[in-house]
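Dear colleagues,

As part of the handover before I leave the project, I'm documenting each prediction I ran so the next person doesn't have to rerun anything. This entry is a single chain, and its sequence is reproduced below.
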Amino acid sequence: MRIHTIRDDWDEEQLAGWEEWVSNRPESVQNNAKQYPAGIYRLKTTGKIGTIVSYEEDGTVTMRFPFEWNPQQILFGSRRVFGIDPQNLEEIASKITPDKGPQPIG
């Protein structure tokens, strides 16, 4: 069963823009952007849910985590955390419901 992700909502122009942006980045950024594309992720060590804000040349990512889950505006009251190893991330579905929040993909 295929699960809906945030990228499924992009139109052709947005997808082409993402692919162009990735192709013009350093190799380490390209690799992480392809393996961990825009989406909503859970940090395996803490269970916190957030979004990738930037891909760093040292192979880490910077993420934004909300202080409290708010289904209407996930990024309301959030903090940025840098130096996260993307291998510690698990992508979750972008179909978010007010009663359950984001649900795991697998």
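The helical segments are 12-23, 27-35. Residues 12-23 form the longest helix (12 residues).

All the best with the project,
I.
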